[in-house]
Amino acid sequence: MGGLSASDAFWTHLRTLCLDHFPCGTGSWNKSRFSQRKAKATWRFGQRQMSVVLCDQLIPPTEETVEALTEYLRSPGSPWALPPNCIPEDQQLRELAVRTPQVIQDSFIFSYFKSLWIVNRGVNEIDANLLKFPNLEELILSANHISRINSTNLPPTLKVLELCGNEVDCLKDLCAPPPPELQHLGLGHNCRLGSSQEDYLTDAFWPKLVSLDLSYNNFTDLLGLLSKLRTLKKLRVLVLQGNPLALMPGYRGFTIDRLPKLCALDDGNITPDERHSFLGISSNPALLLEDVEVVVTIGKVRGIPNPAGAEDLESTPESPVVTYSYYVTYEFAKGEKINDGDNTKVTVSQNPISIVLDTGCLPAGPEATGGSGVTALDVPLKSDLPSEMEKVYSTLHKPWAETIEYDYRKEHVTKDLVALKAYLLAGTTVAVVEEKIVSWPVIVTPVETPSKKGKGKAEKGKPEKGKKEKGKEEKGKAEKGKPKDGGKGSSKKKKKAPSPEFQSDPPVLKTLGSGPVSLQSLLAGESLLTTICDFGVLITELKPQLSALKEKDGKKGKNKDKKAKGGTESAAIRKTASSAKGKGRKQESPRGADVQAIQPVPLTVEFQIQHLKWKSASQILIKPKVST
Question: Could you read off the pLDDT of 320-335 as tens digits, one per residue?
Answer without folding.
Answer: 889 999 999 999 998 7
